[in-house]
Structures are given as C-alpha cells and as structure tokens.
Design the sequence.
C-alpha cells in the first residue's frame, strides 16, 4: 500500500513538471507578443 | 495550420487520458513489484522521448555547423549517406554481429543507424537556414524537460523496489545524470552567452554532448547494473498486455512532446523577431540622431 504513494508521487511529479514548463512557454509567448505590439505601435 | 494545433491538442489530451486509464486500470499488476511498477508507463516513454529529442538536436546541430561552408555541407551529406549504407549492411555481417549485445536484434540496430541520414535530410528539408538552430534549441529544451521527469520518476520507483533512492556508481543512472547536465549547460550557454559565435559554440557542444546519448541507451546492454536490463527489443520478456500499454503511452507522450516542441519553436521564432525589431529600432534611432547631428556638425565647420 505504501508503494502506491510512490506511484502517485511519480505521476503527479510528471504532470507538475510538464504544466510548469508549458506555463513558462505561455507566459514568455504573451510577453513577447506584448513587446512586439508595443514596438509596432512605436513605429 | 492554425486549426491543426487545437485539433492535435484535443487528440493528445484524449490519448493521454486513455494512456492513463490503460496504465492504472487495464495493465496487469506485476507479480514481483505490485502496482508501483506502473511508473514504467511514464518513466520509460519520457526517457525514449528525451533520447529522440536529443537525437534531433544532434542532427540539427551537425547540419547547422555543416552549412557554414558549401564544401563542408557536401562532405556532411556524403558522410550521412555512407553512415546509412554501412549501418544498413554492417549489423548483419558475422564479425559485427558478434559485437552486438546478446538479445539485441541486428535489424533494430540497422534501422536505428539508417534513421541518422533519414533524419539528416528530413531536418534539412523542413528547417532551412537559421531554423535549424531554432530546432536545435527547441529539441534540447524539451528534451531536458523529459529527461528531468526520468530523473525524478526513477528514484521514486527505485525507493520502494530497491530500497534506495539512487545507486551511486550505476552506469545507467550516472550517464543519464551526466547527459542531463550536458544539455542543461547547453541551454545555459545559449541563455547567458552574448558572443556572436554562441550558436556555433552551442552546436559544437551539442555534437559532443550527443556522444553520451548512445552510452546511456547501451549501458544496460553492455554492463550489469542496478538498473534493470532491457525488457523489450529482444533483451528480455514483457507481458504483451504491458508492452501494448507501454507503446500506447509512448505514442501519447510523443504527440504531447511534438506539440510542446511546436509551441517552443513558435516562441523562439517570436523571440528572434522581437530581438530583430529592437535592433532595427535602435538602428533607426541612431540613424535619426546622426541625421540630426549631421547638419549641426557641418554648420560648425
């Protein structure tokens, strides 16, 4: 029964890492889009 | 193309959910390890995806380095063809066959080697010019994410099964950690170096770093390690129901990895576009200031 905790932890850790990474991509994308918009407005 | 991404995202979510169902409900329980063995359905597909991404990074880096001169590009093209031809024939020759570890199929070795020239030409066709470098950074970063998962889920599996979190000195574990460190250093080099040669340096580092990838893969074939021996590919036996779930899970993670790479690729293109726009703006600013200062300097003369 105790071993199932490790199984649960491994699955949760996998998705935490993936979701964290995807969120950094989304954040960086939106920041860059904002910067590009500001640059085109400046022209 | 804009519609394809959301469609593929929905398909991936369904596949991943079904893979989770297969892994937790359908796959039979292991007689020795019990349910904890089910970590295999996340650990192994993540490792295979990381290997594939580092392999793509290697091919893109070689092509990027080769394109510096037309003669180097031609030489690299013929070397890739030669690797393909030799790799297709050699594993079936008796002297070479003796060198292949017991249980490893010569056909599987030949297919893997033939993938090098195939990928070399496909990558060159699909990613011309600087896009090769964009592909290299994308595959390295996503590969590091998958490799991190391998290094996190591995100890979580080892603790209940081996009684230890990590086996110091185990060649599979150590070489995987070294591989992770190499690609992290690759990403750090790209992030913090401001030299004009950064892309070239990173590509060279990637070529040498890729040498660790076959070592990681083959370590369990050539050495007796704490890490289990291969369970598929002729190296061992696995219940066909477990194998089916494992391959399905890998397919789902491959598609997921492809979508993450796609997003990261778009991000890198946008980053370069913004960088270029900033450079143009500062150039235009410098142009304006020199244009306004020119008549003044003339008048002072």
Sequence:
């Amino acid at each position: 029964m105790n071993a199932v905790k490790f199984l649960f932890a491994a699955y949760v850790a996998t998705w935490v890492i993936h979701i964290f990474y995807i969120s950094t991509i989304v954040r960086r994308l939106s920041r860059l889009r904002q910067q590009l918009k500001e640059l085109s407005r400046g022209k | 193309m804009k519609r394809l991404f959301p469609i593929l995202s929905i398909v991936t979510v369904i596949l991943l959910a079904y893979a989770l169902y297969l892994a937790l409900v359908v796959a039979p329980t292991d007689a020795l390890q019990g349910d904890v063995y089910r970590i295999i359905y996340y650990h192994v597909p993540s490792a295979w995806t990381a290997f594939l991404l580092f392999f793509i990074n290697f091919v893109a880096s070689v092509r990027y380095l080769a394109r510096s001169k037309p003669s180097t590009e031609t030489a690299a093209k013929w070397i890739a063809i030669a690797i393909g031809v030799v790799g297709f024939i050699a594993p079936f020759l008796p002297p070479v066959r003796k060198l292949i570890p017991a249980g490893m199929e010569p056909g599987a070795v030949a297919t893997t080697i033939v993938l090098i020239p195939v990928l070399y030409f496909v990558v060159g066709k699909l990613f011309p010019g600087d896009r090769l470098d964009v592909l290299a950074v994308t595959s390295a970063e996503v590969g590091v994410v998958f490799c991190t998962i391998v290094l996190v889920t591995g100890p979580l599996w080892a603790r209940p099964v081996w009684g230890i979190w990590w086996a110091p000195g185990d060649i599979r574990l150590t070489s995987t950690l070294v591989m992770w460190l190499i690609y992290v250093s690759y990403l750090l080099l790209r992030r913090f170096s401001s030299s004009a040669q950064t892309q070239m340096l990173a590509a060279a580092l990637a070529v040498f770093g890729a040498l660790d990838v076959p070592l990681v893969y083959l370590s369990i074939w050539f050495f007796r390690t704490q890490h289990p021996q291969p369970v598929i590919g002729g190296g061992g036996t696995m219940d066909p129901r477990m194998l089916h779930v494992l391959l399905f899970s890998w397919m789902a993670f491959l598609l997921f990895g492809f979508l993450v790479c796609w997003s990261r690729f778009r991000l890198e293109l946008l980053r370069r576009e913004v960088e270029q726009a900033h450079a143009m703006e500062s150039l235009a600013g410098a142009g304006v200031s020199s244009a306004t200062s020119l008549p003044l300097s003339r008048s002072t003369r």
Q: What stands out?
A: Chain B has one domain: 38-282. Chain B is about 80% helix and 0% strand.
